[in-house]
């Protein structure tokens, strides 16, 4: 039987955070091109508007700061206005302050945990009732190599991404009985704004590429297949899982 319908996002409404650059923008572009109505969220309104103008498909943008927990319910409500109740939430927004453990400040710790852990949870919590009413929903979180590996100057980021992996399992336990799956993607080294310090060091970038089984670092389009799988009917019986899209980095 034909299986193309398994990846059809026509009529689905998606909210993508961190959509002004990198993997978040890649996800927003991908879903819009495959028939979803996409609400793109990030802080930089000018960048979002430029993206929306160039994107194929129906899109809307929402400039918002996700680091303040008290505003997340309102942001979720705003994101539901352009097209209606979202079916898909992609939590791609994140921050890595890259501070050594001995230099970690309260402010940087709280910022990292709020943006990387609290924002995905409270946005999902606000949007789940609408998904539950439809009997269908998709939550895709962004984990990391640091969900399971310790990197230098990564204590707050690693703690947050370890939490994201466990939170994804807990979301699945809480909501999958209502038709809402929750999964996470853990990228390897992709060239984005967040990883610019890594790629600005050619020796380090080459060393990371050599650590993979494939022999190169990731490109944004390498995320397309896994993202479509988790967002569509193709993953109906997959929930609570973390997929490492890392070229085999964690296999060596």
Entry keywords:
single chain; 252 residues; alpha/beta; Rossmann fold; 7-stranded parallel β-sheet
Describe this structure in words.
The chain is an alpha/beta fold and 252 residues long. The chain has a single domain, classed as 3-Layer(aba) Sandwich (Rossmann fold), CATH 3.40.50.720. The chain is built from 8 helices and 7 strands, in the order E-H-E-H-E-H-E-H-E-H-E-H-H-H-E. The chain has a 7-stranded parallel β-sheet, with helices on both faces. Strand 4, helix 4 and strand 5 (137-142) form a beta-alpha-beta unit. Helix 3 (72-79) packs across helix 4 (106-134) and helix 4 (106-134) packs parallel to helix 5 (155-175). The protein is globular and about 45 Å long. The relative contact order is 0.15. The mean pLDDT is 96.
CATH architecture: 3-Layer(aba) Sandwich
In the predicted model, the low-confidence regions spanning at least 5 consecutive residues are none
CATH topology: Rossmann fold
- Continuous helix count: 8
- Rounded to an integer in angstroms, the radius of gyration calculated over CA atoms is 17 Å
Overall 3D shape: globular
Order of helices and strands: EHEHEHEHEHEHHHE
If you average the pLDDT, what whole number results?
96
As for the number of domains, it is 1
Major sheet strand order:
3-2-1-4-5-6-7
Instruction: Specify the CATH class.
Output: Alpha Beta
Major sheet, described briefly? Answer: 7 strands, parallel
What structural class results from the helix and strand content?
alpha/beta
Strand tally: 7
Tell me roughly what share of residues is in helical segments: 40-55%
CATH superfamily: NAD(P)-binding Rossmann-like Domain
Provide the β-strand percentage band. 15-25%
Distance between the termini: 38 Å
């Amino acid at each position: 039987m034909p299986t193309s319908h398994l990846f059809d996002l026509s009529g689905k409404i998606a909210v993508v955070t961190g959509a002004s650059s990198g993997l978040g923008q890649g996800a927003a572009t991908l879903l819009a091109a495959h028939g979803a109505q996409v609400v793109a969220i990030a802080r930089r309104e000018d960048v979002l508007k430029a993206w929306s103008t160039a994107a194929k498909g129906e899109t809307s943008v929402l400039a918002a700061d996700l680091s303040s927990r008290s505003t997340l319910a309102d942001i979720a409500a705003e994101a539901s206005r352009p097209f209606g109740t979202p079916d898909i939430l992609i939590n791609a927004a994140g921050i890595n302050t890259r501070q050594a453990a001995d230099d970690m400040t309260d402010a940087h710790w709280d910022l990292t945990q709020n943006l990387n852990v609290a924002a995905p949870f409270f946005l999902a919590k606000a949007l789940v009732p609408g998904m539950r009413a439809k009997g269908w929903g998709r939550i895709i979180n962004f984990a990391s190599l640091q969900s399971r590996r310790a990197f230098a100057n990564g204590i707050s980021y690693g703690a947050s991404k370890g939490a994201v992996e466990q939170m994804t399992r807990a979301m699945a336990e809480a909501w999958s009985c209502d038709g809402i799956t929750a999964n996470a993607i853990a990228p390897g080294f992709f060239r984005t704004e967040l990883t610019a310090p890594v790629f600005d060091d050619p020796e380090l970038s080459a060393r990371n590429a050599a650590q993979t089984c494939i022999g190169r670092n990731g490109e944004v389009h390498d995320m397309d297949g896994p993202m479509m799988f988790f967002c569509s009917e193709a993953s109906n019986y997959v929930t609570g899982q973390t997929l490492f899209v890392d070229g085999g980095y964690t296999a060596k």
